[in-house]
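User: Here's a chain of 271 residues. Predict its fold as tokens.
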Amino acid sequence: MTKINNPRLLLAQLRKGDFAHPGDKEAIDIVLKKIHELISATDLKAGIKALDVGSGLGGTAAYIKQKTSFDIEGIEIDKAANAHAKAKYPGIGFHDCDVMSVNTLFQKKQFDLIYLFNVFYAIPDQKICLKQLAAVAKPGALMVIFDYTLCSPEHIPSSPHAFSGDLQDDKFNMKDLADKPMHLVNLQDLKDWLPATGWNLIEIVDLTSEYKRWYEDFLKLMMTHKDSLLKTFTEQSFTKVYETFSALLNALKTKKISGSIIYAKLSVLSS
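Assistant: Prediction complete.
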């Protein structure tokens, strides 16, 4: 039998779902709880149309669809991953699309909710990305960025009013599972970019401790199931996943990076 040389599929199999982000369902539940709190305080109580940016293998969109009444569309640049999602989750509209072209795919402001699970770090021009997403979001729409962030040695503030601007100057040089450079979210830059692109910051939640726990548990799980995984996947795939996650865990423990959720709302004046 020919073994599979695909780190992303190995990740999905071990997590027992088509998830590529840390925390799997627990992470999604954390985000959904806050989304429901924010939606209940707005007029977006029914008929919510959501955009999953970087939908990958489709697991996150499928889980959110299962837990909510949201009408979900997904965009993904990896055509192989998107083909998997389309075949496995036909009830969701998955599109082969780069986020920088989202305004061409969806040519009117139609989304009430936009979310990105560990996708923003992979986008080189993040400010332009925010502008593109604003172009397809309805005024008052919610946006959630769940991702790795650059942080101060102390902590990530939970309030937008608590920024000190004391973010690390050191560059974080690392590649992801697709061997692409990781552009970690600089929170001070993001604080400036959001209003410049039509978004108002609501809250930043520090998930660093959860990220560390998720990666520690995942690496233990990898070693526990190593023999069975290597029956299906190549040693190269296993090593790539293990070394990448080990490096991320080390960066979290040494406070070079953190894990955060950024919640923002599109200005009602946006057009």
